[in-house]
Structures are given as C-alpha cells and as structure tokens.
Amino acid sequence: MASEISRPGRADEPEKGGEQKPFRTLKLGTREPLRLDCGVPFGPFEVAYETYGELNEAKSNAILVCHALSGDQYVLQPPPEVSSRPGWWEIMVGPGKPLDTTRYFILCANVLGGCMGSEGPASINPATGKPYGLSFPVITVRDMVRSQALLLDALGIEELFCVTGGSMGGMQALEWAVCYPERVFAAVPIASAARHSAQNIAFHEVGRQAIMADPDWHGGDYLIHGTRPVRGLAVARMAAHITYLSEPSLHRKFGRQLQDRTTYSFAFDADFQVESYLRHQGITFTDRFDANSYLYITRAMDYFDLAAEHGDSLVEALRRTRARWCVFSFTGDWLYPTSGNREIVRALNAVAANVSFAEIESDKGHDAFLLDEPELHKILTGFLNGAARHRGFRSP
Amino acid sequence: MSAAGAGRRLRPDLSVIAAMIPSGTRVLDLGCGEGELLDFLVHEKSVDGRGIELSQEGVNACVSRGLPVIQGDVDTDLEAYPDEAFDVVILSQTLPAVRHPREVLRELLRIGKRTIVSFPNVGALKRRLHFLLEGRIPAGPAFAWFDTPYIRPCTIRDFIRLCEDEGFVIERRLTLDRQGRVVPLGRHRRLANLFGENAVFVLTRAR
Q1: What CATH number is attached to the domain comprising B136?
Q2: Which residue, A124, A297, A113, is CA-closest to A211?
Q3: pLDDT per residue over A377-388, tens digit each?
C-alpha cells in the first residue's frame, strides 16, 4: 500500500465523545496552554490536519506543507461538504510529483485562526459557549508555527525533512526554520517575503474594511445574529484576487471583452468579463471561508516581520537556522516580488547558509505557485532529491 | 564513489582545478554555469559546494541537479558573504566577463581563504598572431566582438601585475594549452604569456 495515498477515514476515527466531526483534528495544548505572541495563554485548542503518503519508521520523511491565506489542509483531495474542487496543490503533491507521496509523508494543517477545523473565531469559546467572534485572540504567523510544532509533537515527528509553502505558507516555512532550527532539515519558501510591506498591509486593510463595513458583520458577532457578511467578504476577496494576478494574465484572460452582451448596458451590471469573473470569485469564496478568519489571518500576515525580533536584522534572524534552503520567486509576481525574496537569499548568504535560489519566468502573477509551472516543479524535484541524498534517503 | 559519479569526466581545465581542491572543504564556484565542476566536487570530493550563476537557465539547471546555486552577479553580490566564509573560491573562465575584475578579486580574497582563478590568456602567441594577421578582435569561438561576454580580456602578465599591485600572494601558477592540459613552462613569465593559452592562478591574501 506504500504507493497508495492514505486517505484517513473520518468515520472510523475514534473521536472523543463519539460525535462525528467532518474534520480530522487533534486537541493540542492540553498539558499547558500555548503562549501567544499577543500575551494570551491559549488552549487547549483543536488543529485540523490531513496527511498523505506514509511516515517511515524513523519518522524522518515528513514534509510539512503550509497553506496560504485562503488555503486549507486539503492539499490532495476536496474538502468535505464543499464543492467538488480538487485539493489546492494536486499539481505539486502526489505519486511521482515533486512532493512525492510514495517517498515522503506529506502533512498539512489548517492554520490557527482558520475556518476548516482548526480553532478559529468561528469556533465555540468554551468560556461563553458562543462563537468567539472578535474575542478570539489575535494570532501571528509564529503562533501558527508553534501550534504546528505541537502537532508534530503529538504525531511523534522530531524533525521535518522539509517545510514548504507559497505566500503565507512561505512565511511559515521561514518562521519554522528560525523558531525551530533543529527541527528543519530543508526549507522551501515560495513566492514569499520576510515581512509584509506597506503595500501588502494596505491591500489587506481594504479587505478588512470591506468586511467590517458590511452591516451583516455585527461587530464580528454575525454567527450569533444568524447572518454572514457575505457582501463584505466577497469584496475583500475581489480586491485581493486582483493582487494575485498580473496585468498580462488579466489582459490575456479578459481584455475588454463583454460578458454575454455586445454593447454596454449604460448601467452597473457586470458588462465586462473581468467584472463577472471577479464577482464569481468573490461569491464562491464566501461559501467556503469565514469572514472573521479572513480578518485574523490577514492580520497575522501584516504582523509578519522576521527581522523585527532580531534588531531589524534579517541576517541575525537567520543566523541560527541550519536548513538547506531553496527560495523561489516568480518574475510576474508583484505582490511578493523577486526583490523581497532576493533579500532573504542575501541574508542567508551573509550567514553562509546552504541556499539555492531560482526565479521562475512566469507572467501569471503571484498565483503562479499554485499553477502548472514545469520549471518550478523540475527544480523543486531536483532540490528535494539532493536534500534527500544528504539526509541519507535511498534513491527511489 | 557514488554510482551517479562513477566514470564522471570533467573538461580538462576543470579537472586541473578540481585536483587543487581538498576533499571535504567548503567551496564557492562563481559563474558556475550548469554546475559541471560543482557537481563533480560535491559528489566526488564530498565538498560543501555553493554556486553563483548569472544566467537563470544555468541556475535552474544546477538546482535541478540538487546543487545549492543562486542567481546572482559576481560584480555586485559578493559583499553579503562574511570574511573567509569559504575554504576555496573559484572563478573559472569568468574573470574577463566581470565589469570590475580588481574589485571582484579583492572580494574573492576576502571571502575565501584561497582563490582559484582561471582565464584565457589573450597574450598567447596564437592569439597575438591572429590579431596581427586577421586584424580582428579575438572574441572566443562562439561570439562576435559585439556580443562577447568577455569584456575585460587580460594576459598572464597583466594578471601578475595586478596581483603584485594589490599584494595578492600567487601560491601557484599553471599554464594550460587550448585543450586545458598543463604545459610545463616553468616560472618564466614571458614564456608563459607567449605559450600558455589558458592560465590558472591560486591566490591568497598577504599575511
């Protein structure tokens, strides 16, 4: 069965209390609470996760995949009770893929503050018996990483063979290598940054304001009011979605083409295809995402600044890391551009780290890390093969 | 010897350099191309090797074969490295392609305990004759004068003079023929400059 992707049966999983949950979760922070960056002791809390492939006997072949802002733990299969969309990284993960499930044990957890089974603002606050809403503590990327470290402890995994992810997933990979240098053999941040720029923060603030301006948001207590700020969240997603694409890719897809019409409406319908597309993106997003989670996770990203705790020196932040690094950027990514990724590489050079860096030619914008980019896949495969040799894994 | 590396054959000029590098050392190969030398060093000599390459295709080829290589410019990207970060720094056939050879050499000697530089010797008799008889710029086999990456051609004597001016210690100097095989021309500079088509220098900083 080694080549079979293990699909954890949710029904046969013994859950405490006997109640059937749609997500595979573990209760963490049971012995002592997790001290969050905001100062709040937090826990116990649930973390939802999925795994693919098999953990070897030495528990040394684990690759932690960290998801991006709107991602989840369903790397390789559709999430439960949601449309039939595929897993978000099926192009990268699977038998014979760069993250080869016949060779590696792939682990992905829903981030703290998320809405796919991990403790988040839509979870029930045990103190009140009601959804947290804004009483959920503000979390950081480092808090996400700490919670993942607890998950690894629970699974008995001492060291990750690799930690990787794109965008916010790349930030987690960076944070992992900095926080737990002894637990990371290889780190692969893709289309990421060492800190959120003013522009990054600005775009997120637009999204948050859109959510909070929706009367259905109710100061964050919409679940108690039996509403959901669908319009606000959709607008937030629409604005953000533009930042994930490049000008050429938008132009190629839509140009100025009209949607189901030959002339302008001289009104405010979605005349243009690009409008119709964005509206669709916005609305479908609200089916699967919680508005408060969107606030919390964008906040975590805005607070992300790897150097901040190290006298504003990225070099100092990375000095203690021991990982073999492979940093990727895309030429057409203006949200987390090559320049920012190169800064990470320079800082790694300054500490004489073992680092590879590849800029992938692509005009698909930031989203390229999720798309079919053969060059990325080829290089990542080569990097992981090299790392596996050094780790003493047998060639497949 | 790993199975992958068995029977590995290096370009002659690269094997001259490879022979100078002790096993298990930390090496930086600048302008490493598609990683031919680096791959050999990593697999055959258990070197902790790194590379910098200007062309993205070269970088991608290197990383695809598992070599730690970054895209970068030798002229501008060395300052990030700490002093003596490497046991050996290699600049193979890349010196004439850099914009500021003197500054780059200073950086190399700063970040490496030992620096190996190889370059084609434009002062070789054949090249002198070619220029004399043809009256055309020597641009290398694959290039014309207007697109050659070799923007700073130099001769063995030029290079020795620069080392003397900068106080670099020339630990070893080898002259090679066109195929990259060592030509024993002794210590005589003018002879070497006349008959060595390629040169390999091992430099260290003055103590």
Answers
A1: 3.40.50.150
A2: A297
A3: 999 999 999 999
